[in-house]
Amino acid sequence: MIRPTAIILAFALCIGGVLAAVTTDWTASATATAASPAPPLPPPPVPAAAPSRTGTQPSATARPSATADQWSQNALRDRLVAELDATDPGRALADLEKAITAHPDVARYCHPIAHELGHAALEKYHGSFDTAVHYRNDVCGSGYLHGIVEEKLAESPAPATDVTTLCAPQQSASCIHGIGHGAMFVAKLDVPGAERLCSRFTAAYAVTACSEGIFMQFFEPDESDPRAMANLPADRLAAEPLYPCPEQPVAFRGACYYYAPAYFLQKHDYAHHPESYAAGLTWCRNAPVSDGGRNACTMGLGSRIMKYNIDREQWSADQCEHAAADQRAPCVAGLVSYYRVHYHDQGAASRLCGKLSGAARTDCRAAAGYSTTAD
User: Fold this and answer.
1) What pLDDT score does 8 carry?
2) Please, what is the angle between helix 358-368 and helix 313-320, to 10°?
3) pLDDT, mean of residues 114-133
4) Is 66 in contact with 99 (CB distance < 8 Å)?
């Protein structure tokens, strides 16, 4: 009999490995879709940083927001969707990537923007899954692909059938992650209903990938999307630490613990209160050790630290140092996991480890599968 601990630890390994890799070669690259390229998305002017409410400049430890109204999630999404409608998804995705490079804070919310671009592409091409996927770009954790898949499944007249065929024949983890998002919309945010759809997969990795989409949608919904918020049990989430993770079937429990910190950080206003990262690490200690929940929660917290501070590698590693001794390695493993997802290339983990020092560098190399003694 397989113990719950082994399954949840396997989930953590899957997150750090196969789910961080892009494995589907859907079609040829769509980088040259027109002879005359359209002009790039014009960036809005960036105003000078404003002082805080107290009249002082922001703390050196709190990340000053570079996202004025013009770079807010809604404003950037609207500009990119308009660009997609006027040109093609490839150009909108390229400009999203440029926006993250120019303003790293955009990484905090670029994933739901990429989802919206996937929805818009499917609408632009009249529901043609293959045409929309032709423009795939894995920027922002493959959010564009997830958006296409979730919207296609949500619109399906036969989701119970399409859940296992939409990503065929490749059945990549990244695509199936999008199925998990879509399953939540089909089930109207009823987690057991979405889990029943994901359980139609027979391969363990596919159930894991699908469960990841379920709980990312549950804990990190796009607050501007009425569908995503309609049935969210906000009161119960606020009242019960780590709800609903302890009650989940074993195959889904690891993903639940992994994504739970996203909700914690949002509700503690992490963008203006960087101390919430240390508080979150302490909060993860509420998760049980016996089934691997604490490690999964800690790794998920580390992943969010990296996601929300993508250009502050050593600072992010320093936050892991606030954890108890048994949490530091899984916290750094979470940094590695998201860094790989964000940069979607084979050398990302090596670059991250090279930017860290001390114990964090050793933990980084161990998480990345490198020798812990090599430079």
Assistant:
1) 54
2) 90
3) 97
4) no
* Tally of CB atoms within 10 A around 30: 17
pTM: 0.82
Tell me the helices (H) and strands (E) count for the chain, helix number first.
19, 0
Amino acid at 301: L
Which amino acid belongs to residue 11? Answer: F
Q: pLDDT tens across 195-205, in order?
A: 999 999 999 99
DSSP per position, 255-311: HHHHHHHHHHHHHTTTTT-THHHHHHHHHGGGS-TTTTHHHHHHHHHHHHHHHHTTT
- pLDDT of 183 above 90: yes
| pLDDT mean over 114-143 | 96
Domain ranges of the chain: 1-20+69-230, 233-375
Token pair listed for 200: 């139609």
Could you tell me which of 327, 326, 276, 284 has the C-alpha nearest to residue 305? 276
What is the rounded distance in angstroms from the CA atom of residue 2 to the CA atom of residue 354? 37
